[in-house]
């Protein structure tokens, strides 16, 4: 556990020492804030919900998670510090989980800054806090899965551009399954829905915590972290 926390702390400092994290957070807040205000304006401020923010965030979280993780391992390989980390008395799982927790802390900071939106609604109206709370839980789980995909992509390449492309492509495919299922039928549509990022997020935005959705995001996170650990282990012997 100590090694994991040390690696996580190092990752947080590395992220905060890079302009990428600030750019990602800034652009995320600008875009999500724009959709938040636009949605309220479209309802003539009659709907005191964060619906506009959620509509944007469910797409932005996977996208910006890919950017947050594109340098997590790839940058260390490029700078030559990856070999030093591998020769340290740490296990592969500790390295990957530490990197994941460090990236998750930055994502939670980014989400934490958006609490201003429901706070404004609370001060100026009477929002339903239940769906807001479950929506944030859903965004956090969505972010965990997206970060795990990004870390796996970062473990298989030294090019940050390639990492971002692989992570974005994988996450886009998982997200678009929820759209494609509308054109399928029967068991195929059900299978697509069960694999879709956005399909499993919808219940959270309605104030429902579905155990199937929780299991899906936990499984997605665990699967790609496992693949990242295996990738790191394979890289030790190259």
Question: How is this structure best described in words?
Answer:
There is one protein chain. The chain is mostly helical and 238 residues long. The chain has one domain (2-236). The protein contains 12 helices and no strands. It has helices at residues 2-16, 19-42, 51-69, 74-79, 82-87, 92-113, 116-124, 129-155, 160-180, 186-195, 197-205, 211-236. α2 (19-42) runs antiparallel to α3 (51-69) and α3 (51-69) runs parallel beside α8. It is globular. The model has no long low-confidence stretch (mean pLDDT 84).
| Annotation, overall tally of beta strands | 0
**What is the residue-averaged pLDDT?**
84
Number of domains: 1
How many helix segments? 12
Assign a percent range to the helix content. Answer: over 70%
- Indicate the structural class: mainly alpha
The helix/strand series, from N terminus to C terminus, equals HHHHHHHHHHHH
In this structure, how is the largest beta sheet organized?
none
Distance between the termini: 27 Å
Please give the oligomerization state of what you see. Answer: single chain
Rg calc: 19 Å
Low-confidence stretches: none
Q: Per DSSP, what share of the residues sits in E-state strands of 2 or more residues?
A: under 5%
Summary of the model, kept short:
The protein is mainly α and 238 residues long. The protein has helices at 2-16, 19-42, 51-69, 74-79, 82-87, 92-113, 116-124, 129-155, 160-180, 186-195, 197-205, 211-236.
Task: Present the secondary structure layout.
Layout: H1 2-16, H2 19-42, H3 51-69, H4 74-79, H5 82-87, H6 92-113, H7 116-124, H8 129-155, H9 160-180, H10 186-195, H11 197-205, H12 211-236
Helix pairs in contact: 1-6, 2-3, 3-8, 3-9, 6-8, 6-12, 8-9, 8-11, 8-12, 9-10, 11-12
